[in-house]
Amino acid sequence: MGVPPMLRKLVAIGCQALECLPNDISRLEHLKIFRSTSLPTSGKLPTTLEMLTIFEGVHFDSVSGTILQEISKSLDFLSIIGFPNTRILLGSLRNFESLVNLEISYCDRLESFPERGLSAPNLSYLNIWDCPILKSMPDQIQSLTSLTRLYINNCPNLEFSHPKTKGDFPPNLTDLSIASCQKLMPLTEWSLHLLTSLRNVNIRNVHPELVSFPDFPDNDEYYCGLPATLTSLSIEGLQNLESLSSTGLQNLTSLKELHIRKCPKLSSLPKDGLLATLSRLQIDDCPLLKQRLTCGSQDGIDPRQSPLFSISDLNHLVENTRKVLLVKAGAAFHFSAYTPFVAFDMLEL
Known about the structure:
InterPro entries: At4g27190-like_LRR, LRR_dom_sf. This is Disease resistance protein At4g27190-like leucine-rich repeats domain-containing protein. It comes from Nyssa sinensis. The chain has helices at residues 62-69, 86-92, 246-249, 287-294, 319-333, and strands at residues 9-13, 30-34, 51-55, 77-81, 101-105, 125-129, 149-153, 175-179, 200-204, 212-213, 232-236, 243-244, 257-261, 280-284, 308-311, 343-344, 347-348. It is of the alpha/beta class. The chain starts with 8 loop residues before the first strand and ends with a strand. It has a 13-stranded parallel β-sheet with strand order 1-2-3-4-5-6-7-8-9-11-13-14-15, with no helix packed on it. The chain has a two-stranded parallel ribbon with strand order 10-12. The protein has a two-stranded antiparallel ribbon with strand order 16-17. It is 12% helix and 21% strand. The protein has five helices and 17 strands.
C-alpha cells in the first residue's frame, strides 16, 4: 500500500530499523523522525522538503549524510533534539541556502560546531539549549548577517572566544536571550554596543558574582555599554546583584520595558531615577527591594516616568494592607495627572 500522492507531512516514531522512506513522497514538505535507532540509508529525500525534525536518532553514517545533503538546499527549518552525532550531521549539510530556523537541544555530546561554521546565509533564528558540553559558538558567526534572533539556554560550559574589541555575535541581532551559561566572560566583554539593531535583551542566571548591573567600570579602556537601541531589558536570577547602575543604564534612551526577577539581594534602583522613556516596570521575587518600596523609600521611582509599576510578590498581603501601601506610595510618588495608572500585583488600582 502506497502513500497518498499529495502527502505533505510524515512522522516516523520508534522505527528501529529505518532504512528508507516511501518512494512516492515527491511533495513532502515536513518530515519528523522520533526515537528511531537509525536514519534513512537508502533512497532519496524529496527536494521539496522544507522542515526536518530529528529526535533521538542514533545511527548516522556517511550514507545518511549523503542522503540528507541532497535536501540541505531546500530546508527552511531544522530541529535536532537529543541527537548524539549533531556535529557530524551539521557537517554533512554543508550548504543551508534556504535555512531560516535552526534549533539544537538536548545534544549531550555536542562539544563544538563543524569547522568553517555554518553556511547559512539566510538563517534568521538560532536556538541552542541544554547542550552541557558545548564550549563555543559556530566559527565566523559574525558572518551570519541575516541572523536576528539568538537564544542560548543551559549551556554551562559555553565560552565566548573573541576579544572584547571584536565581539561574538552576528551584527544585525534584534533579540538576544542568554540563560544559565555560567562560564561566559563578564558582560563588559560581550561588545553589545556593536549591535546597533538590538531591541530586546534577556539575561538570566549568569555571572553569579555580579553585584551591579550593568557592570561597566569607568576606567575600562574598552567601555562597552548597552546599545541605545534597546527597548526591552529583562534580568533574572542574578543571585548577588545589589543595585542597578545609573552609568550603565543612562544611554538607554529608547528603553520602554524593564523586568527584574529573582534577584534576592537587589535593594536599590538607580539614584538618578529611571529613564523618562520607561513605560513598564515589573519586579518579581526581589524581597529586599520590595521591603524598601513598601516602607515608603522609593529610591528614585517616579510613576510619571513609569506608568505601570507592578510587584507581583505582594500576593500574601491582605486587601486592606494593599490599600494602605497604595496610600503610602501615593504620598511618596506625588501622583499627578501624568500618571495613567499604578498597579500592584498586576491589578489596576
